[in-house]
Amino acid sequence: MLRRTALTLGIRLCSTGVTRGPLPDVVRPNSDMLEFRELFSKAKHIAVITGAGVSAESGVPTFRGQNEKWRKWLSQDLATPEAFSRTPSRVWEFYQYRRDVALNKKPNAAHLAIAECEARLRKQGRSVVVITQCIDDLHHQAGSKHVLRVHGSLMETRCLSCGDVAVNKRNPICPSLMGKGAPDPDVADAHIPVDKLPRCDKSDCNGLLRPNMVFFGETLDSHILTKVEKEMEVCDLCLVVGTSSIVYPAAMFGPLIASRGVPVAEFNTKTTPKTEYFTHHFQGPCGTTLPPALAQHESEFM
């Protein structure tokens, strides 16, 4: 019941449990690329759900594994509204570090394959939408146009006073964060005064800015979630790429699409808690497995 409610309300939370709800019968996904390519050649509306694993191949750290901690803090404990309220300086140092890393990375072969596929199929009257949990800018840098960012963006800020949302790629984001954010456990917090943290530059505001992303425990943007639901209803092929499938509600997207009888192919370096619900599984780096999957099909030459 909790997970069903989480999907309906769009609450971002972590779980390693198997999803409950109206899911398809468990199947044994296959890795027949020729079979997948045949499905791909006939698909008119393709949904590509991407997670942190895609960005990791560009060198962007994830919340898990060896990057689970920033200094002595668990990363997912810093990405909460409570943490930002208690220690905005620490949280901004953490995000300054993440922004600095992301701003210095480039799209990899998986990003580029998705963007090229979208542009190519658009000319054929077919569509590709990227539904991403990633908060970097790499899909856009690669050239993808139809991107729904369910967890927000590292490159945007939101004012806590006036609510203004703005693209912000300054690095550092403000002078007081110059040279701050080092992840090493022996680095002490900077304790930057709140009035020296990123502030709104709209006239007569000067409110405190926060990253415009969905912290754990917050609800997803209802407008984005509505668009995602519409795409899930119309897609006739789904790719789940580089996601651990344990962060809700996004972990439900692929299985719910599969419950309609739509083919769903997972591309990941390993199996996930949702692999058994999908028709196909292609194991390996996404930058290796995805380009041949999305390359021009022989039927497109006819």
Tell me the number of strands: 13
Note the main sheet: 6 strands, parallel
DSSP helical segment count? 11
The first-to-last residue Cα distance is: 49 Å
Proportion of beta-strand residues: 15-25%
Structural class: alpha/beta
Radius of gyration: 20 Å
Helix content: 25-40%
Q: From the coordinates shown, what is the CATH architecture of the largest domain?
A: 3-Layer(aba) Sandwich
Oligomer: single chain
Shape, per Cα inertia axes: elongated
EC number: 2.3.1.-
Family: Belongs to the sirtuin family. Class III subfamily.
GO cellular component, one term: cytosol
Pfam family, one: SIR2
Account of the protein in words:
The protein is an alpha/beta fold and 302 residues long. The chain has two domains: 29-60 and 107-151 and 221-301, 3-Layer(aba) Sandwich (Rossmann fold), CATH 3.40.50; 62-104 and 154-213, SIR2/SIRT2 'Small Domain'. It has eleven helices and 13 strands. The protein has helices at 2-9, 33-42, 52-56, 75-78, 81-86, 88-103, 109-122, 138-142, 222-234, 253-258, 286-294, and strands at 13-14, 45-50, 69-70, 73-74, 127-132, 147-149, 152-159, 165-167, 209-213, 237-241, 247-248, 264-268, 280-283. The strands form four sheets. The protein has a six-stranded parallel β-sheet with strand order 6-5-2-10-12-13, sandwiched between helices. The chain has a three-stranded antiparallel β-sheet with strand order 8-7-9, covered by helices on one side. Strand 3 and strand 4 (73-74) form a beta hairpin. It is elongated, with a radius of gyration of 20 Å. Mean pLDDT is 92; it is low at 1-5 and 16-21.
